[in-house]
């Protein structure tokens, strides 16, 4: 018998400790096995230093990038995907632009990937095949992680079955999209206090977010390499 724990972080820590102690006390008895399920993996991921990359798509490949869509109540479509655990060595402008460019359309078809680092990626597109291929390409091309589970589905267009049906503000129309820009989020566990310089035993997390860097250019921006260097550095060691 396996179990999954869900709840607030402090409660989970206490409950998990109690369960592990109980399992040790009941060793060799037929009472089942305690398994760290998705909730525990997510808790570990929450406390894991990492470099994250956000990719933004637009409905036009030139200004203005987000045009209102008349047949969808002038709705502007702004797709975005944040990938955790990206490899700094793979922050290549041409690579990212090409991988993001595989997404042909935005739409009601959804794919969800759960990675071995505990993170979850969700992407919408015009077809399940295109979304899956794009998502797999981004995971394999920009990270060293692998997908543990992969699920796909389509949001219903029937108002009797879904609040995301046609006419709803939550409806996702199928629209051609283009890679627009990227941003980096540097999440690190601090090794020393920023003010005093003293070493931290438990450590704390610090976040640094970059400004967006364009992907819609025909060539790599001149500031790209310096941008990557600045926003992937050790926050508590570098100026």
How would the blueprint of this fold be written?
Layout lengths: L8 H17 L12 H9 L3 E9 L21 E4 L9 H8 L4 E2 L2 E7 L4 E6 L2 H15 L4 E8 L20 E2 L1 E15 L6 E11 L3 E2 L9 H8 L8
Antiparallel strand pairs: 1-2, 1-8, 3-7, 4-5, 4-6, 8-9, 8-10
Helical/strand content category: alpha+beta
Mean pLDDT over the full residue set: 76
Work out the radius of gyration. Answer: 22 Å
The stretches of 5 or more residues where confidence is low (pLDDT under 50) are 1-9, 18-45
Write up what this structure looks like.
- The protein is an alpha+beta fold and 239 residues long.
- Helices cover 24% and strands 28% of the residues.
- The chain has helices at residues 9-25, 38-46, 93-100, 128-142, 224-231, and strands at residues 50-58, 80-83, 105-106, 109-115, 120-125, 147-154, 175-176, 178-192, 199-209, 213-214.
- Strands 1, 2, 8, 9 and 10 form a five-stranded antiparallel beta sheet that branches. It has a three-stranded antiparallel beta sheet with strand order 5-4-6, covered by helices on one side.
- A hairpin with a 6-residue loop joins strand 8 and strand 9.
- The chain contains five helices and ten strands, in the order H-H-E-E-H-E-E-E-H-E-E-E-E-E-H.
- The model is unreliable at 1-9 and 18-45 (pLDDT under 50).
- The N and C termini lie far apart (52 Å).
